[in-house]
Hints:
It is a single chain. This protein is an all-alpha fold. It contains six helices and no strands. α2 packs across α3 and α4 crosses α6. The longest helix has 43 residues.
Amino acid sequence: MRSENLQMLPQNRKTKKLTQIILSLGIGLLLVFGGGYIKQIGLGSQPVLAQYLRPEFVAEQVYLRLSYLPKENQYVSQETGNPDRDNTLISRFIRYHQDIKKRPTRFRIDWQLSLADYLGANEEIREERYPGRSTLNTNPMEGDVKIISGLNRRQRKQLVDVLVSIYDIDLEQPSNSPNSPESPSTPTRPTPQTNPSPPTRPNKPPLSRPGDADLLSP
């Protein structure tokens, strides 16, 4: 009897190991397909407008409002050998802010911190991580720092105000346009109706009574 139990031990171990392998494969497949499905749902729920808020797009809007800012887009692309006109001073500043420093784009204080970096009053800007270093023939960091640090206080405030106004978009707020079906309409109050007064009836002469004829006699 004991020998039979000893013979069954290897089989039990094999069965247990096979079960663990099957469970591991099942969990792995569940994580792969389940994670992909969750990721797909998450991407589908992102606002459509977010795909247009690329740094180049935002920089273009900034230049439309603050035309005195230099574009500094004369740097040559390593890939094409031609000047990369979309790679501007403001687009690199935005990429430094959101990609390198990972700072939010909707708050004024965070943009002020990035400006302080260019002024040398906050964190050091690292040349090897600056936007454009790996795509342009010349690292534009030195020139960008010189230009932004040369802006006066009013110009820096205008730059921050414009950036915040562009990114501060409430996509969940319905349009208040009068043509929008979601726009709230002011309920019209019903006009109070006055009850018309009943028509006046002409006074009928009173009926004659006995003895009234005596009043006519001389």
